[in-house]
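Internal tracking record. Fields below are filled automatically when a chain is submitted to the structure queue. Please do not edit lines marked as system-generated. If the sequence contains nonstandard residues, flag them in the REMARKS field before resubmitting.
Queue: standard
Priority: normal
Entity type: single polypeptide chain
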Amino acid sequence: MTPALQPKLETITLEQYEALPENRRVEIFDGVIYDMASPSQIHQSLSMELSNTLYNYVKNKKGSCQVFSAPFDVMLSDNPLTIVQPDIMVICDKNKLDGKRCNGAPDFIIEIVSPANPSDDYIRKLYYYKNAGVREYWIADPRRKTVTVNYFEENNLNVQYSFDSTIKVNIYDNLYINFSDIAELL
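SYSTEM-GENERATED OUTPUT FOLLOWS
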């Protein structure tokens, strides 16, 4: 018996991606478009708190890194085209920034899990971020009230914390994020 053939998904180029309407929120994995839902209120609140914590740390230390939040494109690969919009990212190599996007892996990424598609953050993005060279990747899950830390440089994967924990940002020597302070605001 011959196995059924899977339909070939249509892929797009960078030029086609850049021609999409600005209000269409998508990510591209291996050239295939995936639409993104609008974030919820709790998602936005958590994103703002975490972004502010990271931004204030970098600013106070007069560091060379920059903090960005979605929507901001990160092109992990141009062939096949892979463009993501992490919820929060820290980019320390200014040569990766071209005014439109980050070209290459950010140093640190936080994704906030959407209830509609948790496998995106736990499986798909974990795979792409690790293989692209992201140094550290956190998955904040408001529904489960957990943070999963993946520190790829030390091969520490899927280390679980609760929202009442204080968690070290491993790419920095002395940055700790107290999630219990943040969870109180949600």
